[in-house]
Design brief:
homodimer, about 325 residues, alpha+beta, Ribosomal Protein S5, domain 2, Alpha-Beta Plaits, 2 domains, 6-stranded mixed beta sheet, 4-stranded antiparallel beta sheet, 9 helices, about 20% strand, globular
Amino acid sequence: MNPVTAIAHPNIALIKYWGNRDHTLRLPSNGSISMTLAGLETQTTVQFDSHLSADELFINGQKASKRASDRVSDLLNHIRSLANTHHLARVTSSSNFAIAAGIASSSAAFAALSVAAAQAAGLDLDTKTLSRIARRGSGSACRSLYGAFVEWFVGTDDADSFSQPLSIGKDWELMDLIALVDQSEKPYGSTRGHKIAESSPLQTARVSDTPRRLALCRAAIKDKDFELLCQIVELDSNLMHSVMQTSTPALLYWTPETVRIMQAVKSWQSEKLEVCYTIDAGPNVHCLCTPASANEVEHRLKKLPGVQEVILCAQGNGAHLL
Amino acid sequence: MNPVTAIAHPNIALIKYWGNRDHTLRLPSNGSISMTLAGLETQTTVQFDSHLSADELFINGQKASKRASDRVSDLLNHIRSLANTHHLARVTSSSNFAIAAGIASSSAAFAALSVAAAQAAGLDLDTKTLSRIARRGSGSACRSLYGAFVEWFVGTDDADSFSQPLSIGKDWELMDLIALVDQSEKPYGSTRGHKIAESSPLQTARVSDTPRRLALCRAAIKDKDFELLCQIVELDSNLMHSVMQTSTPALLYWTPETVRIMQAVKSWQSEKLEVCYTIDAGPNVHCLCTPASANEVEHRLKKLPGVQEVILCAQGNGAHLL
């Protein structure tokens, strides 16, 4: 049983996923659209081994926590059941960016794990099926199976909640400048966050409004309408944080630095600079922009107090074997 | 026709008013509960004069803007119709705190104006009726007619949307420490904000959930349950800002300093300090606390970067003639 290595990139959601109908299968409360990011990547090697007495997980050279290991074993168990094998696996994973800090590390991690583990287990699966498997590990991971713009369908069950590339707008080269203000592990992770989404009086309204936002986002991508994209992307980000901030317990992922960048972006927009913000479950701010405005946005972001680093990401490819 | 002077205090909403069913009458989308604040006050003198050719308004010694003057004349017109008079009025108003910066200056201003103008016009009205008049000038002003804890009923029309003191919890002496981080006039005022509340996909859900929050707030006041009060007050503040941040245009009243204080308050709560935050339509943060914790909270607030001043307010009385 040879080791198999896969690479995947994180993605940034333009229309965000928050809350599950089914927490085990990670069937989402609403559909979502994302852009896969180049530059940031997770590389994962899986080797099934009949001599192991337990799955082994090493992340960035260190033995992983029990919680992370259990989550990986859950995904491996699913793959073992599909491959009809009982062999345990050695998994080594490394990322070139901070994990669990709201730059979607789990999306890259579980996309790479799914591709590598399926191949290592001898399964020959299409990408759609791999996206369904990755979804069980981390919802947003199912979108990292594809490159550029990707839609994850809310679906009705395990079979039809998968991702698919948006054929429209393939040649629209947007950039994501990630302004890092805090790279420490967030105190309240996304998996726990999804479980309390329903405790917000606003989640049902956010979810009900999603088809409208998805349609506007698809239209913006199809027409390469950056202004419309900005409006819908910022609204969607604010909607998700509204739910987070009004759930029990309240999740206030924004820091002073987060808000400083949000306010700066709004001010830059009034100068006609092509940029908008979107924020995942953490304090760091993703600034989407056109290639024409990227240098200026990067320059301005770096001058803001509290911005530690700016990562410039073009559109990335889908997860793939090395 | 002698000049008549009245004094009123602003109030801080514990369950907040945002959005109207009727913008002219300012019939609110939801009921609300507030605490009237001592220390801050607006003093307003009204004199009807048969020689005037237009209403005259002076605020803090300066001739007021056309917008402010028109708003005051609208209220005076209503009072003139009730008093069956056509005399125009000279109005002078002064406040001992920053106006239009989200510390509810208009609540004190229109409460004082209503009391002074009604008396100056020779009307003999009960407080409930005065609260309905004040409501037309600025919704939250109807709550400043009374002291301590006050509820404003959503009602069905002009006749039954008035305020009333909460008889429960009268002797619960809470304090409001207002952390001022920006005293400039806000770029997007509350009157305009109320008009776009419905553009948020979340406003309907916030409004529907209000009876539940009102009941919890009344229960917290009745039982002097500070922890419950904190939970519901912070939730309600976050709900209102969720609607603001997801309306079109998005109203992001929070600044980095606002969020710094919110995060600090959450951290102090984990040390069992009795304090919670609530934020009106502006960046300044109201920190509610018990008398026992007030000194410590004030001390800590003053040490936070960006806090220009901390105003300590006990519970105030209702609007009254001088």
